[in-house]
Amino acid sequence: MSASPAGPSRARERQLSRSGYSLVAGVDEVGRGPLAGPVVAAAVILPPRWSVQGVNDSKRLDHQRRRTLAQAIKQEAVAWAVAGVAPQEIDRINIHQASLLAMRRAVDALAPSPDYLLVDGRFVLDMDLPQEAVVGGDASCTAVAAASILAKEERDALMRAMHQIWPQYNFAANKGYGTAEHRRALTECGPCPLHRRSYAPVAQLQLDLGLG
């Protein structure tokens, strides 16, 4: 399903509704690339009548717009849930498996439970539910875009909170991504418990410091 120039649509949800599915959940994750912090996923079931305008791929929205939309989505959704996988678990099972696990956890937390899943990306989830993988789903499916917004807002809020504990890495600004400033802080201070030891820059630093 390709993205529309006008943004995500509910076309696939409407098709599924005509096939008898009434609780279609969009599922997405955020935080695969950062050197620090969890990977966070969200799952959202939208009502048939949907009045929130401007829902789009979270990467295309500024912070204030995402925050406003996240509040509206939570108010109007039939159900929504967020879940995460911690850095230590990412290191243990790898980021791909951690991303799928975070999405499964988010789906499991939905009440009512969905009867169909639209999963952003190329992989479906190991769950006993009808589902499909939608490449670029956050840019083409409204429910998936809504999930991307909730996941992004949840993770950003967590990283701002973690900044209060480890201000030297400036997580409030970089959200754990490997900016030049973040990498300099890593070199000067070493990794903190929020860093992903399996990621190459952190792993190499541990070797250089004799911590590996």
Automatic annotation (TrEMBL):
GO cellular-component term (any): cytoplasm
The keyword tRNA-binding is assigned to this record: no
Stored Pfam families: RNase_HII
EC number: 3.1.26.4
Keywords from the UniProt entry: Cytoplasm, Endonuclease, Hydrolase, Manganese, Metal-binding, Nuclease
HAMAP family: RNase_HII_B
Signal sequence, start to end: none
Compartment annotation: Cytoplasm
Membrane spanning stretches: none
Cofactor(s) needed for function: Mn(2+); Mg(2+)
UniProt name for this protein: Ribonuclease HII
Residues covered by the RNase H type-2 domain: 22-211
Species in which this protein is naturally found: Desulfoferula mesophila
Domain of life: Bacteria
